[in-house]
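Hi L.,

You mentioned the student needs an example of a multi-chain input paired with its predicted structure. This one should do, with 665 residues in total across all chains.
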Amino acid sequence: MKVKPVNHAKAAEAFIEDTAHMDFHDERLWDLRQKRDQQMHILPEWQELRARASAIKEHTLANLPEYLEQFEANAKKNGIHVHWAADGAEHNRIVGEILEKHGAKSLIKSKSMVTEECCMREYLEPRGVVVTETDLGERIQQLDDQMPSHIVVPAVHKLIPDVAKIFAKHYHTDPNDDDAQSLAWQQRLAARPVILSADAGMTGGNFVVAETGSFVVCTNEGNADLSATVPGLHIATIGIERLVPRMADMGVFIRMLSRSALGSPITQYTTHFRGPQKGSEMHVVLVDNGRSHRLGMEEFWTSLKCIRCGACMNTCPVYRRSGGLSYGAVYSGPIGAIIDPTFNERKYSTLPFASTMNGSCTNVCPVKINIHDQLYKWRRVLAEHHELPFVKREVMYMAGKLMGQPSLYRAAINSTEVALSTMPRFVLYNWLNPWGKHRELPHPVKQTFHSWYKQNRLKTKKKEGEGA
Amino acid sequence: MSTSRDAILTRLRDNRPDPKAHPLPPVARLGDMDNGQARFENSLQILGGQVLERQEGDTLATAIARRFPDSKVICSAVPDFEGTIRIEDLGTPQQAASVDVLVVRSPFGIAEMGSIYLSEAQLHDLNSAAHLTQHIVVILSPKNLTANMHTAYMDRPEFHTANYGVLMSGPSATADIQGVLIRGAQGVRTLSIWWED
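Structure written out for the whole complex:
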């Protein structure tokens, strides 16, 4: 059976109906966007930083095999075990084998979108490994059995009472606790014994430096540092696109990452791992999972420049009002909408349409990915591959015919104005017009621009011509 | 063992864009070059860090006693401060969880961010101590401030030599519950700077 496309519009509808949650979500993310703007205005060199970050990333991607080999050689010299995983299944098998070799039954981990891609928890848990997320937001999502709804703030769609209920169920705390400070303290108390008794720790990696064989991890809670330094075994799962050539390149990226993400100058912790700590073992699993294929997509390869700051999500009016979970994918928001179809074109065929094409995502992207252009290009690809739903396909076909012929178009516009002012609601607002579901159609105008222009300007022009 | 590695590298070579069209830009030294103490303190405060108050006649010990009156285990990672236990005597990474205040010296700070740097060299190979302790007091000299992230990465040798190197910018923090900013999440609850000459 063919996989069904994610019904983003329907899921978004449910999100919108819950006004309290949607309003908070919308305002919270817009606040992050405004804080990002404040940080940007502090730095006169912001646009130069973006241009450099983009150029460094494009160079690295064009030379990725060489930089990966350089990283591997240096990391090995530093005492790191380097593994390569073609896909999620291989990644999970590698991690499972490392844990088994160490007899590790409990794994504490910091946030990693790659492990979400690989469905690692679902693989390890039936094999007797207890996996505990140590990032507060990610832990809330794990306890609630949900995917992260945002790549930086995974539980941003939840309010305090939601968290209180989840903690009450799992940590036996007060279900009516309405204080974020006290709830965060409960998490600290619950996490400490798990961290102290863990057999192994896992982190992701925000950046990988070929020159030194290091990887860099950025967090605010310090949970990646706890996961990496307390147990005697550290496994880092990292996508192969995360490389930068030189340590000196890191300044460009660290100066923009947290400013773009949260509007803070830097994450509280920026940690550089170059080799195992004393008495410990370190493994890096380099994960492809479709990335090498994406590099060959002429119109979409630059999406691999992404540093996962989430700025495009925070600014997107559709994302802010539909919530990350409505995308039904590991990556949500504008960046998700251009990455997800590379994993499964049919399943994620609806996501490139979850955009108003306002271009704000492109403007805030610190590595200058042309996100809204790629959204448009995906729509074209999906149309060519017949992945458009019936109504959209038919409407697009008719629109194409209309727009291609000015006389037909003008006749249609005139009759639309008549229709908008005369037709009953049930004709205008039905399943053939999903646009009108939550919106009012535009007010009919008395006269179109074209006919006004014909009446007025054309006459004036003629007069001027006569006078000369 | 190497099949996936070779397959990935081959696919990347087949699929990549033309390397000649994407040259590597030279390393850049951009932005504000002020490496002063005032800039550092301002950035530190934005990220929730503090400067340990120094009253007339204070030593580090009296300043810590006033700031953390309830602390029992004060762990020293420096030769010139005693504390109640030395970091070398903690034994395992897990035992660092008993520490109330860790005193450590940072080789450099970054004025742009109010960040301090620590590696296994300062933590005596017990890196967990910087994160399991409740509070951290960092001794820093204003002479060892670098202006910004570019100068730090270009000029500090530690990024090329340490196995573990953390830039801490204020204490552990989170805003994961309804956007409320909380200082002191999973790691240190406070971070204080003690200026030395």
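You could point out the following to them. Residues 43-289 of chain A form a domain with the Rossmann fold fold (CATH 3.40.50.10420). Chain A touches chain B through 94 residues (CB under 8 Å).

Best wishes,
N.
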